[in-house]
Amino acid sequence: MHAPTSSRPATGKSRKAFWLKQLHMWHWMSSAVSLIGLLLFAVTGFTLNHAADIEATPVVTEGAATMPPAMLARLKTAVPAAEKAPLPPAVADWVEARFAVKASGEAEWSADEVYLAAPRPGGDAWVAIDLATGEATSEVTSRGWISYLNDLHKGRNSGGAWSLFIDIFAFACLVFAVTGLFLLQLHSAKRKSTWPLVGMGLAIPAAIAIIFIH
Fold first, then answer.
1. pLDDT number for residue 16
2. Per the CB 3.0–4.6 Å rule, which of 49, 73, 99, 132 could disulfide with 138?
3. Over the range 20-43, which residues count as b (16 or more CB within 10 Å of their CB) and which as e?
4. Is the backbone of residue 161 left (phi > 0), alpha (psi -120 to 50) or beta?
5. Residue 145 has pLDDT above 90, yes or no
6. Torsion from C-alpha of 179, 41, 162, 157, nearest 10 degrees
7. For the whole model, what pTM was predicted?
C-alpha cells in the first residue's frame, strides 16, 4: 500500500499564488490612487530644485473700500482682549465680498487697526481696516502657477483639506513602495539584477549625502 503523497508543495504554491494576487492588487490600486500625485510631486520636485533658475514676476493687485458705519461700530465693539482673534462673521463676509482674500484666519488687533494676513499657495494677501475711519485696504500678490504648485508640494498655506490629501497620498505611496518591495522579493529568483539595482537606489543617495553634503 502506497503512502499518501505530501500536499506541502501544492500548499506552498497556492500560498505564493495567493500572496502574489494580493500584492499585485494592492500594488496597482495604490499606484492608481497615487499616480497623479506622484506626477505632481515629481514635476514640482524639479521646479523646486531649480527655483533660482525659474523667473517669476509677481503680480500685485491693490484694493480699497469703506466699511458701513453700522458695521464699523459692530467691529469696534468686538475688539478682543487678545492681540489675535478672528474677525466677526459679518465683517469676514464683508471683507471676502470686496477683496479676493479668505477672511477666516486670525487677525491682529490694535487700538487703531485690524490687520488680517491671508497667505495662500503661490502668493500672499492682506487686508487692513482702520478702526477710526472704516477704510479698508488690501493687497493681493500672485507669483504664478509654478509658485502655486511649488507651495502645494510643500503644503504651504494650503489648508486642512490639502493637508489631509497629502496624508492619504503619502500612505498610498507607502503601500505602493512596500508591495513593490515584496513583489521584487517574490520575483528576484528569476531576475538576478533585482537586488543590485535596489542596492544602487540606496547607495547612490547615501554616498552623495555622506561625501558632498556637509
1. 76
2. 99
3. eeebeebbeebbebbeebeeebee
4. alpha
5. yes
6. 140
7. 0.79
One-letter identity of residue 75: L
- Other beta carbons within 10 angstroms of residue 121's beta carbon come to 19
Q: In what order do the strands lie in the sheet with 135-142?
A: 59-66, 135-142, 123-130, 113-117, 106-109, 84-86
Q: Which three cell numbers stand for residue 127?
A: 487686508
Residues present in the chain in total: 214
Which residue in this structure is represented by grid cell 500672499? 124
Q: Is the pLDDT of residue 4 over 90?
A: no
Taking only the tens place, the pLDDT of each residue in 149-158 is 999 999 999 9
CA dihedral sign, ordered 115, 120, 124, 127: negative
